[in-house]
C-alpha cells in the first residue's frame, strides 16, 4: 500500500466531469441515439452554431426554442442510462412509492434469492433504497464492527457536504499528469446521457495528443465489450457498450476485465 501511495503509476476515471460545457454534447448524443428528429438536430446546428447550451444569448430566440424543444422531447429519459425506466417520479414522496418501499423492505431478508424478490425490483433505484436499509441495520453494523453510536444514518448519496467548487475546468490537471508520465484510463458507459461519451472525447481531443492506437473494439469472451483508442500521452479512452453513468454497476464483468488488463499494462 505504501508503494502505491508514494509511487503512483496512473489514474482511472469513469464518465468524469472535466469541463463545464459538457451539456453541449447532449443534443448530438441524443440525435445519434435516435432520441430526437433529424429536423430538430439540423435546426439546432444552424441556429445555435456552437453557442453554449446553458448560456444562450437572449436575442437568439431560434436557438433557445430548439434547446427547449430538445428538453421537452427528452425530459422523461433516464439520464443515467437511456434504456432504463425513469423512476425518480415514483420516489418515496408519493404514497405509491412509499408502499413500494415498504414491500421491498419486508422482502429485504430475501436479498440473496434470485426468484420472487427480483421480480418486484421495478427499478434500479429500488436497490439503492435497500442499500440504505441494509447499511443502517444494527445487526449489519455489528457484523462490520461499527462502534455503536459512532456514526449517524448512512446515505448512499449525501448532499450534506459543505464545500465550495473553485475549479470548473480540469483539463490543465490532465495535462500536468500527462507531462509527469502518468498513465490514464478514461472510460464512458455509452448509454450515459448525463456525461456523454461524446463530451469525454471532446475534452480529450482538446489536449492535442496524437493517436497511437486507432479506434477499435475491445473484447470480453469473444464479444465486443466497447471501443477504445490510445493516445501518445499514455491515455487510453474506452467506451463500455451498454453501460450507463456508473459503468461497473451495469457491466461489472466487462469493467473488471478492462481494469485488470489496464493495470497489467496490457492492451484492452
In short, what is this structure?
Strands 1-2-5-4-3 form a five-stranded mixed beta sheet, sandwiched between helices. The chain is built from twelve helices and five strands.
How would you summarize the topology of this molecule?
Layout: H1 2-6, E1 10-14, H2 26-32, H3 38-48, H4 61-74, H5 95-106, H6 116-119, H7 124-135, H8 138-143, H9 171-179, E2 183-189, H10 197-205, E3 211-220, E4 223-231, E5 235-240, H11 247-250, H12 252-263
What key phrases describe this protein's structure?
Peptidase_S10; 5-stranded mixed sheet; serine-type carboxypeptidase activity; glycoprotein; Rossmann fold; alpha/beta; globular; 5 strands; signal; AB_hydrolase_fold
Give a verbal description of the structure:
- Strands 1-2-5-4-3 form a 5-stranded mixed sheet, with helices on both faces.
- It has 268 residues and is an alpha/beta fold.
- Among the domains are: 23-74, no CATH class; 171-263, Rossmann fold.
- Helix 3 packs antiparallel against helix 4 (61-74).
- The chain has 12 helices and 5 strands.
- The chain starts with a helix and ends in a 5-residue tail after the last helix.
